[in-house]
Amino acid sequence: MNAYPDVLLFIGGEWRAAQDDRWISVTDPSSGLEIGRVANASRDDLDQALSAAASGFKRFRDTSAFERAKIMRTAANLLRERVEDIAKLMTLEQGKPLVQSRLETLAGADVIDWFAGEAQRTYGQMIPSRSTRIFQSTMKVPVGPVAAFAPWNFPINQVVRKLSAAIAAGCSIIVKAPLETPASPAALVRAFADAGIPEGVINLVNGRATEISRYLIPHPVIRKISFTGSTPVGKELAALAGLHMKRVTMELGGHAPVIVAKDAVVGDVVSTMVPFKYRNAGQVCVSPTRFLVQDEIADEFIERFAAGASAVRVGNGLDPATEMGPVISEKRFAAVEALVTDAMKKGARLVTGGCRVGNQGSFYAPTVLADVPNSAEIMNDEPFGPVAIINRFSAVDDAIDEANRLPFGLAAYGFTTDLATSNRLSQGIEAGMTSINHVGLAFPEVPFGGIKDSGYGTEGGSEAIEAYLDTRFVTRM
């Protein structure tokens, strides 16, 4: 698989072009050049996907959990067998280093395996009644066809959580894949198709996000929506879903604080957080963005973090030596550049980076800003790029107040060797996920989701499948 393929729609068990033969170009962010194209679904294609999902659900909801799990585990193994080819596609279309694409693909297989197990644990319960003649019970049944919308930053892992939860529960699904990175989600769907998923249970469409979401979400066939993306778009789609009483899971934007107390081991924090900050060029919803460092160690931390950032090897993701690839597009490059420029105008200190790397592709240097005022846009808007903000604090309560200042509440991090401080961070930070003294997020078995403007619901852990199930109560005499 050396060439980038034409990416087709998958509807009713068939791979095909759009009805009107429209296509959209796909660009390699490392070169800025077109590398392929993706089929652009028409309204007729969406109607056929809806019809396929409806008929697929009628058949699949009565498939036993044991059989669903068998198909899922087969798909997971196919994904592992194909990891090298899929990783190359992902790096071509998204830009991240090949090693990260490989790990994402393998992690996707683990997610499938986790939800395969959950399929067999969708228990109801017997409820003691007030009469020996009455039996009361609940059962879990699939909610119905799902519409899932995924972004480009993790082309497999953002889709696989939604897809696996739906299949485990016995739902059918229509996946709207990202236009920037369509080939790797298609490879994921192909693994399920080759594993024997029945026709119509999984459908894949591509096209303009606004057109597709505004058609699918209100449609009576769709009973559940899962969306990962920005907070403004998420609010619009949640409002649209609410008008039609559709169940929704929303995983939205963040602006993750990292509180580094004076007793933390600076070298350990830097060695942990530098690669995590610049992973995927900072285009990660749980990426650490606002480093809040106690006064006593702030100068040392800034110096060592900046040295680590400067040492990150930037280049084409297909080069084995590359540690950070480009941002996804020139549009994203311009957005990051504007945030850095605004911060510097308002008094921030540029410690390292802040510039383009090379003369081809959308490569932005790993950047560190220090002493950034809250009036800067980057302190209030998620940078979603390779920029770390490092500010100082005196008291831990002040850092917690700053961590909670924004309306976001997705991920947060803390570093301390003091148990009392660890407890204060655990209880005081308002975030759906908080990781202290290590990076422990996004495993299949743990919750993944935010609070406040970062959304609601979870796409990981034992609770994730609940959003795809109805609880029905039966009382019999």
Strands of the largest sheet, in order across it?
A: 14-15-16-13-12-18-19
Question: Architecture of the largest domain, CATH level 2?
Answer: 3-Layer(aba) Sandwich
Radius of gyration: 23 Å
Number of strands: 22
The portion of residues assigned to helices is: 25-40%
Question: Per CATH, what is the topology of the largest domain?
Answer: Aldehyde Dehydrogenase, Chain A, domain 1
The secondary structure category is alpha/beta
Given as residue ranges, the uncertain stretches (5+ residues, pLDDT < 50) are none
* Amino-to-carboxy terminus distance: 62 Å
**3D shape:** globular
What is the CATH C-level name of the largest domain? Alpha Beta
Please characterize this protein's 3D structure.
With 477 residues, the protein is α/β, with parallel strands linked by helices. 38% of the residues lie in helices and 21% in strands. It has 2 domains: 266 residues, Aldehyde Dehydrogenase, Chain A, domain 1 (3-Layer(aba) Sandwich); 188 residues, Aldehyde Dehydrogenase, Chain A, domain 2. It contains 13 helices and 22 strands. The strands form 6 sheets. It has a 7-stranded mixed sheet, sandwiched between helices. Helix 2 runs antiparallel to helix 4 and helix 9 crosses helix 10.
